[in-house]
Write a structure and sequence with these properties.
Layout (H helix, E strand, L loop, with lengths): L1 E5 L4 H17 L4 E5 L2 H6 L7 E4 L2 E5 L5 H8 L1
Length: 76
C-alpha cells in the first residue's frame, strides 16, 4: 500500500503526515509513505487545496487535516 501526502510542506501537511504514520503503526500494516511537494505533480491528481491524502494513487481527502482515527477508517 502506498500512502501519498500531497502538499508543499506547510504545518498542516506535516500534521497529516504524522497522523498517517500513527495510523499505519496502530493498524500494523505495511505501507509506504510518499510526500509529494511538487505543485505540478499535485495538480496532476486534480488537487487544488492541500493538504491531501491519497491511497494507492486515489485521492481520499483534500483541503483538511485528517485525524489519526479518520485515516484508520480510510485504510481499513
Amino acid at each position: 500500500m502506498k500512502i501519498q501526502i500531497l502538499g508543499i510542506g506547510c504545518p498542516k501537511c506535516k500534521i497529516l503526515e504524522a497522523n498517517a504514520r500513527e495510523a499505519i503503526k496502530e493498524l500494523g500494516i505495511n505501507a509506504e509513505i510518499e510526500k509529494i511537494t511538487d505543485i505540478e505533480e499535485i495538480m496532476k491528481f486534480g488537487v487544488m487545496v492541500t493538504p491531501a491524502l491519497a491511497v494507492d494513487g486515489i485521492i481520499k481527502s483534500a483541503g483538511k487535516v485528517l485525524s489519526k482515527q479518520q485515516i484508520i477508517e480510510i485504510l481499513k
